[in-house]
DNA sequence: CTGAAAGCGCTTACAG
DNA sequence: CTGAAAGCGCTTACAG
């Protein structure tokens, strides 16, 4: 089962390897008969360009790394990551580039930076998550370009590629929706504050409340997971039993919060309105279905892939993109 | 930003490239002073073996493909796939091998087989899903070994690696649980019958009912998605309004079925018991939480990775593994 | 123990 | 338009 090389194809077609290479590369200035022979033999032999040889010769690796938090895979919060991944994979696929998963684990911090130095990848997309923040600085001086999904807190060098959604605007939308529903005692469950996303959502919420002359209700922190939402909600209820509105910075935390509210005898949305963030699966399967701030996750993944590929190929492109958030009205408000 | 080569390291250390290569490969029969110099210079220069050159020289590609249904990514049923993926990624990671996503789309059927012929991968793991069955035959004559998660229907050549769960046994467990709960008019929502998994679950269910002298209730078909579960449940109710038990071959379909039952005024489990299959996220977030047949999805992914790597490395290994299913009792029964 | 040399498969600048 | 040759960076069989 030895793979045929370009020499085999050239021999079978009765031409030099240079000619065979030209035909296979799509050159047009080749004798028609020769070209036909090369193409016929390549097909007959099942020839496929040896990938390692092409890369070594100076081509692109044809692969892009996708840095994700290992533990997110298959977990509750996996839906956020898979949506971005889907968009990124589609974009890379359309660009004939292979997505390589680079799960960030805590055991070997230098593993991913090292891999980026090996020439196996033309670039990487980093999906910023709580569990990854410790890697940001190590990735910042990568020899290949990196597209960040979400805005890193740390310094990531000059002219970075950053694809984000309008988290501040999303926080504003959430606050406004709660206010318009007549809520006046509004608390928040934030995400982990080492993530710019989480801080921006909180800031938008605070500012919008202030614009309406309302004092922000109690602020408690979660880490975007369902369990952290239940814990945070329990704390909120203790600190402000008269709460009538809650902005949870992720749908998972919103779902967790609703359970705690219901267990405490509060009806959603009759007694308390809840607004989530993300618009992932659980937003529509939760009971009641969540009113939430939608992030265009798949589009963000797609934009990261397209922008990174354009950069690698030296094409002009917008390096910083902030995609709009919007409110999706269901029944928790 | 030129990457240092082994020649740069050798020069800096004042030895030949052969000696440098030996040191870097971990050879012990090298002068201690030379070895120390090589290691020092390699670190100082930030040397990393050029991946393409090593592969071309005859080494392993150090990468394994993960063939998945593109549309599953980020969709409702993504949870099944992400759980397997997590296990596989962990296993590959532990083996110092990179997981490369190979999303199967319908536009270019030869894309993945072609890639497997390019030498870029040492093997592949195929997660069998409905959307992938058309690819099975094209993958069967891959030049690199393939590990199948789930048992393909088609012929896949001699001595294949197959990691599966005990679907038949799971069907038996589901039927038995429904019978022990006193149910006598029991219907089934099967998965897509081009998947062996779906057929085996149905067979286990049928056989167990027969063993108890019960005639199988109506059989309707879904495709594992939530929407197909609601549609199937509507048909079941039409055909057998007196149904008191349902085995849905996926948790998503079970969740969909429960909604339809509740909308039709049936209480779960008081009037109708429902048993699902998989034990993914929605099983515990559904209302009521699902009693379901658990597949050890992450373990299956891990076993696929371990078995494939052992095969590639020529180590002895069990090529066909059927992992046990078990029943997880919650509140839908 | 160490080094010079060959060769993996490809692409392209160069000569004709 | 075509072919002979060089070279990408690595590893290892061979000679010393």
From TrEMBL, chains A, B:
Question: SMART domains annotated for this entry?
Answer: HTH_LACI (SM00354)
Q: Name one GO molecular function term.
A: DNA binding
Query: Which regions form coiled coils?
Result: none
Enumerate the spans annotated as HTH lacI-type domain.
Answer: 4-58
The transmembrane residues are none
Q: Which InterPro entries match?
A: HTH_LacI (IPR000843), LacI/GalR-like_sensor (IPR046335), Lambda_DNA-bd_dom_sf (IPR010982), Peripla_BP_I (IPR028082)
Q: Signal peptide span per the entry?
A: none
Keyword set, alphabetical order: DNA-binding, Transcription, Transcription regulation
Tell whether Iron-sulfur is among the UniProt keywords: no
Q: From what superkingdom does this record's organism come?
A: Bacteria
Q: What is this protein called?
A: LacI family DNA-binding transcriptional regulator
Q: Which organism is it from?
A: Microbacterium psychrotolerans
- The organism's taxonomic lineage, starting at the top: Bacteria, Bacillati, Actinomycetota, Actinomycetes, Micrococcales
């Amino acid at each position: 089962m030895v793979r045929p090389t370009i020499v085999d194809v050239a021999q079978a077609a009765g031409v030099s390897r240079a000619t065979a290479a030209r035909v296979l590369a799509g050159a047009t200035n080749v004798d028609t008969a020769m070209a036909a022979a090369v193409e016929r033999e390549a097909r007959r032999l099942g020839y496929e360009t040896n990938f390692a040889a092409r890369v070594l010769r100076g081509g692109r690796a044809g692969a892009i790394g996708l840095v994700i938090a290992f533990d997110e895979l298959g977990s509750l919060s996996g839906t956020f990551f898979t949506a971005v991944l889907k968009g990124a994979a589609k974009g890379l696929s359309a660009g004939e580039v292979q997505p390589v998963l680079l799960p960030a684990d805590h055991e070997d911090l230098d593993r991913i930076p090292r891999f980026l130095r090996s020439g196996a990848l033309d670039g990487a997309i980093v999906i910023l998550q709580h569990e990854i923040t410790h890697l940001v600085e190590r990735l910042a001086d990568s020899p290949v370009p990196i597209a960040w999904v979400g805005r890193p807190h740390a310094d990531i060098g000059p002219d970075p590629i950053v694809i984000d959604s309008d988290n501040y605007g999303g926080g504003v939308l959430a606050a406004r929706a709660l206010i318009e529903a007549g809520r006046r005692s509004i608390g928040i469950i934030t995400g982990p504050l080492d993530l710019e996303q989480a801080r921006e959502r909180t800031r938008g919420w605070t500012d919008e409340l202030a614009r309406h002359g309302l004092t922000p209700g109690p602020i408690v922190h979660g880490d975007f997971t369902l369990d952290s939402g239940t814990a945070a909600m329990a704390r909120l209820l203790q600190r402000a039993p008269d709460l009538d509105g809650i902005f949870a910075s992720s749908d998972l935390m919103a779902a967790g919060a609703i359970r705690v509210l219901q267990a405490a005898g509060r009806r959603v949305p009759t007694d308390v309105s809840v607004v989530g963030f993300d618009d992932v699966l659980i937003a529509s399967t939760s009971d009641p279905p969540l009113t939430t701030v939608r992030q265009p996750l798949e589009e963000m993944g797609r934009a990261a892939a397209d922008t990174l590929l354009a950069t690698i190929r030296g094409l002009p492109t917008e390096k910083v993109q902030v995609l709009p958030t919007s409110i999706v009205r269901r029944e928790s408000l």
